[in-house]
Design a protein that fits this description.
The protein is α/β, with parallel strands linked by helices and 264 residues long. Helices cover 34% and strands 16% of the residues. Bound molecules: 2-amino-2-deoxy-6-O-phosphono-alpha-D-glucopyranose.
């Protein structure tokens, strides 16, 4: 894992967007894995700015989102499809037909999940997967006790996650109990995984994911098995890491990271 600790969320988001920008320009037909939640929003804003001001072209990009609530229609204000349209897709030149979000209304959820996996494979696999992290360590919606071998499937949300996400709904009772999510096994097959985490509320989950044991109780710890996982943190989210000084030294000595003007 590579751990990049930036002074604040904005700087970390800009660096992450620069990594994605470079990767998109390098590969026609790039496949981008996308995440929802508040965390990636500044990073998406930076991708939009790069599209508008620096010619970043999404016309041949294909995207697959991590997850969706079960039972929410695509136009529901809290659906992840609507979130993606509003926060990113409506502002860049991606072909809407090339954007995929799991279908929370599928009549046969198991078949839809198997099809989602098949579609990712047919697209050539995910080149860069964007990830946030839940306060309980979940990635996508893979809650604690999710198998590291899990694939796209439906599962039940924890009370903690429903409470964390209640701010997007009229009340806690309106938060769905179920979701569809790429599995941890699916996420581990991405060529590069970029995780963003900001704020003190993520510090325990991040410390467990990076420095704790591989453990189904912290699903993000599965990233220790990923061959190219890059974790972008602000100071608060990094505050409980024991080897912070070491990560900072590795970052500062890396010619790759120093090649980004966002680091200067
Ligand atoms: C949701 C999403 C996750 C996301 C998490 C954190 O539960 N399914 O993909 O990482 O929220 O959200 P936030 O970034 O708002 O803290």
């Amino acid at each position: 894992m590579e751990i990049m600790i930036l002074p604040d969320a904005q700087r970390a988001s800009e660096l992450c967007a620069a990594v994605i920008d470079r990767a998109i320009r390098a590969k026609p037909g790039f496949v981008l894995g996308l995440a929802t939640g508040s965390t990636p929003v500044p990073m998406y804003r930076e991708l939009i700015r790069r599209h508008r001001e620096e010619g970043l072209d999404f016309s041949r990009v294909r995207s697959f989102n991590l997850d969706e609530y079960l039972g929410l229609a695509p136009d529901h204000p809290a659906s992840y499809r609507r979130f993606m349209n509003e926060q990113l897709f409506d502002h860049i030149n991606i072909d809407p037909a090339n954007t995929r979000v799991p279908d929370g209304l599928a009549a046969d959820i198991d078949a839809a999940c198997a099809q989602y996996e098949a579609d990712i494979r047919a697209a050539g696999g995910v080149d860069v997967q964007v990830l946030g992290i839940g306060s309980d360590g979940h990635i996508g919606f893979n809650e604690p006790a999710s198998s590291f071998a899990s694939r796209t499937r439906s599962l039940t949300l924890t009370r903690q996650t429903r409470q964390d996400n209640a701010r997007f709904f009229a009340s806690l009772d309106d938060v769905p109990h179920g979701c569809v999510t790429m599995g941890i096994g699916t996420i581990l097959e991405s060529r590069t995984a970029v995780m963003l985490a900001f704020g003190a509320g993520k510090a325990d989950a991040i410390a467990g994911a990076i420095e704790g044991p591989l453990c189904a109780m912290n699903p993000a710890s599965a990233l220790q098995l990923h061959p190219d996982a890059r974790i972008f943190l602000d100071e608060a989210a990094a505050s409980k890491l024991k080897l912070k000084d070491y990560y900072n030294e590795v970052f500062a000595r890396s010619p790759y990271w120093q090649s980004f003007k966002e680091v200067k």
